[in-house]
Specification:
The complex is a heterotetramer, with two copies of chain A and two copies of chain B. By secondary structure, chain A is α+β, with helices and mostly antiparallel strands. Helix content of chain A is 24%, strand content 28%. Chain A contains two helices and five strands, in the order βαβαβββ. Chain A has a five-stranded mixed β-sheet with strand order 2-1-5-3-4, with helices on one face. In chain A, a hairpin with a 2-residue loop joins β3 and β4. Chain A is globular. The relative contact order of chain A is 0.29. By secondary structure, chain B is an alpha+beta fold. Chain B is built from three helices and nine strands. In chain B, strands 3, 4, 6, 8 and 9 form a five-stranded antiparallel β-sheet that branches. A four-stranded mixed β-sheet of chain B has the order 1-5-7-2, with helices on both faces. In chain B, β3 and β4 form a beta hairpin. The chains are: A alpha+beta, B alpha+beta.
Chain lengths: 80, 151, 151, 80
């Protein structure tokens, strides 16, 4: 089972209560991991409103996670 | 042609100076300012948080696209991060071109794409002490309020 | 909301400061710069001459029209007169608005109308010593050249 | 016959060789006066490319000139 690094920003950081953590993944895809974390930590945003980045690039939620991946779940942005 | 994040105040005059070019006849700049109201609420200050490595990559891509789409001689964009007070510059875009039409269109393209695509988030602080992450409101959630953040 | 002619160098930073407004979220500025080429000729400097009383009236009318057409919070325009060197600012337009779309459109409107309507003329000085009043060329006339002005 | 003031700018100032003059008008309209001056001073611009201002306002070339009018013939502009 892959061990990954997750970094949280903005509303997810506040709802998780920390900025990053190491996790051993028991699901296959980034989207499945978000759903698991959302239920565990009561994230308010549904997966449909989240974008995913792995190793500092945007990827689809169907991306399979691999050992040492750095994963970021991106809430709706509001720059500018 | 540069994109960067800035933790310190943005200086538009200094940034414009970097774009000086005797071949350019037109310079268009855009500044986003922190304003005192948003959707009817009195804003006191705000915070920008960025996922820096990806924001910098995506910002550079937006500038490259603008250069491919429009005939410009130079362009740059700086986005502020951290805690900002009313009136501060949150984002700056500058474009030079031989002619004004291309400069206007490129500047508009850069700010539109930056707002839509950069992984940057804004938290507004309101007069009463409440806060909200903009665009992150969900059903049953009071305007995205994080007045009672979980532990 | 002001239009004026300036015989001395234009200071965009100072002009932008005059438009500061905590209710505005967007600021768009346009600067016309003296560039080193025009239609294939190497430009060394240029002169702007204005029919001042009518230019000031017409400039004020353009700003009033922009304010009526677009939802802006502030706008201003300054046009340089006199002898300008390469890189100097010939004209500056600044617009503030709550939202960026209106600021971009109003700035574009003001500069387009200013160029088309203000009674201001531009004489280019070229590398070889020749000069030309721009847009004033006539048939049989070498690109409007005034290299041999009548007495 | 009305006595008027004419002010010249840019290419017309150079072709006339002076910036202003007082004239006693022997024609009726501003456009007719321009044609007369154009022939007298060999102005290169035809009337069709000139706009007219009287007393610091744009007027049509058909405007009748009156005593003390301040008249300006406006070559094609090039601001900005």
């Amino acid at each position: 089972m892959p061990a990954i690094h997750v970094q949280y920003f903005a509303i997810l950081r506040e709802q998780r209560g920390l900025a990053q953590e190491e996790l051993v993944v028991t699901v296959a895809t980034a989207g499945e991991l978000y759903e698991q974390l959302r239920q565990r930590h009561r994230f308010t945003l549904p997966l449909a409103r989240i974008r995913v980045a792995v190793n500092d690039e945007f990827v689809s939620a169907e991306t399979t996670l691999r050992d040492h991946d750095r994963v970021v779940f991106i809430p709706p942005v509001a720059g500018g | 042609m540069t994109f960067r994040l800035s933790p310190s105040p943005i200086d538009p005059a200094a940034l414009a100076l970097n774009l000086r070019d005797d071949a350019a006849g037109a310079f268009v700049s855009f500044e986003g300012w922190v304003r005192n109201r948003n959707e009817g609420q009195a804003v006191q200050s705000l915070e920008y948080e960025a996922y820096a490595p990806l924001a910098e990559k995506e910002g550079a891509r937006i500038l490259t696209e603008a250069r491919e789409k429009f005939r410009v001689t130079g362009l740059a964009c700086v986005h502020r991060v951290g805690h900002l007070q009313l009136g501060e510059v949150a984002v700056w875009v500058g474009v030079t071109a031989e002619h004004r039409g291309e400069a206007f269109e490129a500047a508009r393209y850069v700010i539109d794409e930056a707002k839509a695509r950069l992984p940057i988030w804004k938290k507004e602080h309101y007069a009463g002490g409440a806060t909200a992450w903009i665009n992150c409101a969900t059903r049953g959630d009071h305007a995205g309020s994080a007045a009672n953040p979980p532990a």
